[in-house]
Amino acid sequence: MPGSTNGSTKAMGALTVGGLVAVTAYTVALGSNGWLWFGWVVLGLLTLVMVVTQS
Fold first, then answer.
1. CA–CA separation, 53 vs 41, rounded Å?
2. Which of 16, 18, 24, 53 could form a disulfide with 47 if both were Cys (CB 3.0 to 4.6 A apart)?
3. What is d(CA 6, CA 53) in angstroms, rounded to the nearest whole number?
């Protein structure tokens, strides 16, 4: 069905948002870590690819 997302895409989106919250909290508490931000960007791009290929 066009426009709908399956469970794995929703889970990946939730993981991406949760990762953003975690990386932001880490940055505020302990300072920036480039590898964490790089990992989050990669996760975000993978999520975007999943969303695009789903439709």
1. 18
2. 16
3. 12
User: What is the band of 6 on the pLDDT scale with cuts at 50, 70, 90?
Assistant: confident
Check residue 3 and give its pLDDT.
Answer: 55
Q: At 26, which amino acid appears?
A: Y
Which residues have CB under 8 Å from 43's CB, separation 6+? 15, 16, 19
Question: In 3-state terms, what secondary structure has residue 36?
Answer: helix
Task: Tell me which amino acid residue 5 is.
Answer: T
Angle between helices 34-54 and 7-30 (to 10 degrees): 160
Q: Report whether 16 contacts 43 (CB < 8 A).
A: yes
